[in-house]
Amino acid sequence: MGDAPDNHELNRRIAVLEERMKTMQADLSASLERNNAAFERLRADMATHREDAAKRDKDNLRWQIGLWIAAVVILGFLIRL
To answer: How many CA atoms lie within 13 A of 77 on its CB side?
Structure first.
C-alpha cells in the first residue's frame, strides 16, 4: 500500500482530468457549431441550386416547345408544296 497515491495526489489528478474534460467539451461544442454553420451554408447552396435548375428547366421547356412548333410549321409548309 506504500505506492498508492495519497488524497492530495488523487485530488490533483481529478482536477487535471476535469480540466481536460472541460477542454474536450469546449472543442466538441466548437466543432458542432462549425458543423451546423456548414450545414446551413449547404442548405442555402442547395436551395439556390434548386431554383437555378427549375429556371433552366423552364427555359429548356420553352425552347423545346418553340422548336416543335417551328418543326410543325415547316412540315406543314413542305406538305403544301
So the answer is: 6
